[in-house]
Sequence to fold (151 residues):
Amino acid sequence: MPEIAKSQPGSFCWFELGTTDAKAARQFYADLFGWTTQDNPMGPGMVYSMLQLGGKDVGGLYDLPPDMREQGVPSHWLAYVATDSADDTAARVKAAGGTIVNGPFDVMEHGRMAASGSSESRTRPAGPSWPRPTTRPRARSTRRRSAGSRT
Fold:
């Protein structure tokens, strides 16, 4: 499996699943891909699970918080795009007519990120090219898959 020490700006650099049933999602992806999880408490009632393959982080998983559920946010995969600067990219999003939904803000030791919305109001996070090595599973099928997969 290829390891990526630093994602190039404009490439996808992180993936996470916000779900209404993290326990079931962890089991589903463990059975499907052999992913294991490392749970990290993130405050009262909140756990962020690192999805791992072969001991390497491949993504994250968390239960949608109550406020998102109340707003009707469904389970969803979110893909992050690497940038040289989350702050500069946020400014470019605004100049292009987009909206900054959240951030830019610091993400622990990993760098900074921002979440933006286009004119269609779809959220698109922009983050740093994090220095964490990442292993990406290779596709085992040549079938095309929808980018909107949900668990």
